[in-house]
Amino acid sequence: MASCEKIIFPASIGGQARVAGFFYPTDEASPKGVVQICHGMAEYITRYDDVIRHFNLEGWHVAGLDMLGHGESYEANKAIGMPKGYFGKGKDAMAKTVADIMKMHDKAKERFGTNLPYILYGHSMGSMVARYIYSMPDYASEFKGFVFASTSAPNPAVGLGLFLSSLMCGLGQGEEEGKMLNSIAFGSYCKKIPDARTVFDWVCSDPNEVDKYISDPLCGFMFTNEGFRAMMVMMKFIQSKKAYAEAASAPAFMPYGREDPVGAYGTGVEEVASALKANGHSKIRTVDYGPQRHELMREAVREQYLKDLTDFFELVVG
């Protein structure tokens, strides 16, 4: 396991809510920079241990935050009754989660210094958060480069999802599991997998990794209705004309697998990249890893994928 330093600090939603952050310093005498990780939906930062170890060995410090309702941040808020898959109440909950991520960025600068280059690496839902930050000029300017790994395709049903999740929240069911929304969002994800063994086979082609995911109580849980509403607000923004137009000029790397339903089997990722390029953002690079599923860091291409990530980091910092 990579060497880890844990911190706890107040969450942006206020009250007694707290979030957990992590630092993973490299042992290299002359670090190349800092990679800040945004984790995916229904998982947490320490699941990235192999990825973090690779980054550390290549000379990169790593920082990351467990978002509210996830991992150690969920554990830190159990005493106040905060459920898993919950970012807070209201349509600004995701904006406050992004504020937490930027607070973590400030703490990383305190820990590792302001003279090093910073790169934001987001996977899955974390890639959507990274895309949100990419389209917020004041936030984006803090990073030299971005990774949007296994990101989402543009989804025309986001408006409906936002309406339904807001309806459920308005009925006082915000902190309850979003069963209807979960079915709509993920019900078809295994449709292209013959004889799918579990509902999470789309995550990874390695059954052992899928079993580990299923057996982990901090993975694969269902989001609350408020959690889904926060997601829909974010998705509506990142696929808007405004987001594409105001995206940063910094380089972005967009890796994907062609058996990943999140990115519409690759076509959706390429669509996002094309929209960014059409708005003048020329430093966008997509990489098609072939017939791989969602978690590239656990697929057969993992070694090449990790190498490609650090090669991109090197390119960004020159």
Automatic annotation (TrEMBL):
Signal peptide (from-to): none
Pfam families in the cross-refs: Hydrolase_4
Entry-linked Gene3D superfamilies: alpha/beta hydrolase
Superkingdom of origin organism: Bacteria
Residue span, Serine aminopeptidase S33 domain: 30-299
InterPro entries named among the record's database cross-references: AB_hydrolase_fold, Hydrolase_4, MAG_DAG_Lipase
Protein name per UniProt: Lysophospholipase
